[in-house]
Amino acid sequence: MTKKTYEEYLLQTKPELVELAKYYADLGMSAPVLWAEAETKGDPTVATCLFTYVLGKEINKADDHGWIAAVKGGDINVDSESLCTEAADALLHAEKCGIDLTRLTPLVRAIQTQCVKNFVSALDEGPELLCLPLPEGREVSWQLYEVKKDESIGNPISGLHNFFDGEES
Fold first, then answer.
1. Please, what is the end-to-end C-alpha distance for the chain in angstroms?
2. Which of 117, 147, 163 is nearest to 47 (CA)?
3. Do residues 45 and 70 make contact, with C-beta atoms less than 8 angstroms apart?
4. Would you say 36 and 20 are in contact if contact means Cβ atoms under 8 Å apart?
5. What is the pLDDT averaged over residues 101-128?
6. Contact at 8 Å (CB) between 157 and 146?
7. Helix (H, G, I), strand (E, B) or coil at 156
8. Is 90 exceeded by the pLDDT of residue 167?
9. Which residues pair with 147 in a beta bridge?
10. What distance in Å separates the CA atoms of residue 51 and residue 46, rounded to the nearest whole number?
11. Degrees (nearest 5) of the Cα angle 125, 127, 129?
């Protein structure tokens, strides 16, 4: 007799998870059955999944070197023309020095991952994480919430920083 995984056990005991898990699997999420189970428990799973999915797309895959042409062509979402020009010039300089620009992809991915993780950590932790001074006698905080179809506020979305570890899913 073979031992079942927890996910196999869940699918056997909760057949309603099969359809839900397919949705998460189609998005490429790891452990889609666990995402489906969390959704059935009332967690804001769809919102969390889509938010992490969208942010995850901001991090190049290890074999995606399209960033090189994007930077050289100024086709990046940066409003500063001087920063775009400086970035393109830096790549041209690296090429002139004989550097294979594709070797820089891990560096770019690390920077992208850091930016995304810093952003979601600030969402998760609020101003305490940022160590910003507040005016005396004033407090501030924030929280990301799921908004339901009827536009009512659902459960808070938290733990986002746990989804971005620099590994491809």
1. 31
2. 147
3. no
4. yes
5. 90
6. yes
7. strand
8. no
9. 153
10. 8
11. 55
Q: Count of residues for the chain?
A: 169
- Over residues 54-80, the mean pLDDT reads 94
Give per-residue pLDDT as tens, 134-164: 788 888 778 888 898 899 998 888 888 888 8
| Percent of the chain residues topping a pLDDT of 70 | 95
Instruction: Flag whether the pTM goes above 0.90.
Output: no
- Under 8 Å CB-to-CB from 43, ≥6 apart: which residues? 155
Question: ∠ CA(100), CA(53), CA(71), 5° rounding?
Answer: 30
Rounded Cα distance between 160 and 93, Å, is 37
141 SS3 class: coil
CA-wise closest residue to 163 among 105, 134, 124, 136: 124
Which residue, chain included where needed, has tokens 């920083």? 161
Distance (Å, whole) CA 154 – CA 142: 15
Task: Point out which residues pair with 156 in neighbouring strands.
Answer: 145
The pLDDT score that the predictor gives to residue 148 is: 87
pLDDT of residue 1: 64
Distances (CA, A) of 76 to 44, 58, 69, 85: 31, 11, 10, 11
Tokens representing residue 81 in the block: 């023309």
